[in-house]
Design a protein that fits this description.
This protein folds into two domains: 1-35, no CATH class; 41-178, no CATH class. It is 58% helix and 3% strand. The chain is mainly α. The chain is built from seven helices and three strands; from the N terminus they run βββααααααα. The chain starts with a strand and ends with a helix.
C-alpha cells in the first residue's frame, strides 16, 4: 500500500488507501501556518476564466468588476465598525469570509496587479478598524477556541498581515517567481 500523505504532484493518499487531490486538514493547516496564506474551497488558476486589467471598467452589472469586489470588502469592514457588541463577532467572521472570497476572486481574474490594488484599498480606516477589532477578539480565548484550527490560523494571518492576506495558490505562485 502507498505511504499515507501528500506526494509532490499534490495527490494525497489516505489511511484507508483512497486518493484525493484535496489535501487533508492537517496539511492545509501546516501550509497556512508556514506560508502565511489562506486556503480556497476550490482550486483555480489566474486567468482560467479570463484575465482582466485592473483599469477595466465593467459594461454590465453582472460583469467581472474590481471596483465592485473592493466595495464588497469595504462594506464588510464598515459593517464591523457599525456593529453593536452583540453583533460584533458575527460581523468579524463575515468580514473574514468576504475578504477571503474577494481576495480569491480578485487574484483569479486580475492576478497580482489586482492584489496590489486591493492591498492599497485595505489601508483605509474602516479596514484598519475592523482588523484592530479582529486582533482584540483573537486575544479572547472564548472567541478563538470556538474556531476550527484552520479558520483560526487563517484569521490570525489576516490579523497579522492584512495587506498581505492572499490565497495559498497566490503564495505558491509568488514562491515560484522567486525561485
Amino acid at each position: 500500500m502507498p505511504e499515507v500523505g501528500q506526494n509532490s504532484s499534490g495527490i494525497t493518499t489516505r489511511a484507508d488507501g483512497t486518493f484525493s487531490n484535496k489535501p487533508s486538514p492537517d496539511i492545509q493547516l501546516a501550509e497556512v501556518q508556514r506560508a502565511r496564506c489562506f486556503q480556497t474551497d476550490r482550486p483555480y488558476a489566474v486567468g482560467d476564466r479570463g484575465l482582466h486589467a485592473v483599469t477595466e471598467q465593467p459594461r454590465h452589472r453582472d460583469d467581472i468588476s474590481l471596483p465592485r469586489y473592493l466595495a464588497s470588502s469595504d462594506a464588510a469592514a464598515r459593517s464591523v465598525t457599525e456593529a453593536t457588541p452583540a453583533e460584533r463577532d458575527a460581523r468579524l467572521l463575515d468580514y473574514f469570509k468576504v475578504r477571503k472570497l474577494m481576495d480569491e476572486v480578485i487574484h483569479r481574474f486580475f492576478g497580482d496587479p489586482g492584489l496590489q490594488v486591493a492591498a492599497a484599498r485595505y489601508v483605509a480606516p474602516e479596514h484598519q478598524t475592523a482588523i484592530a477589532a479582529l486582533r482584540e477578539r483573537l486575544a479572547d480565548p472564548g472567541f478563538a477556541s470556538a474556531l476550527s484550527p484552520l479558520k483560526r490560523a487563517e484569521i490570525e494571518v489576516l490579523a497579522a498581515a492584512p495587506l498581505d492576506f492572499v490565497t495559498c495558490i497566490a503564495r505558491r505562485a509568488q514562491g515560484q517567481k522567486k525561485a
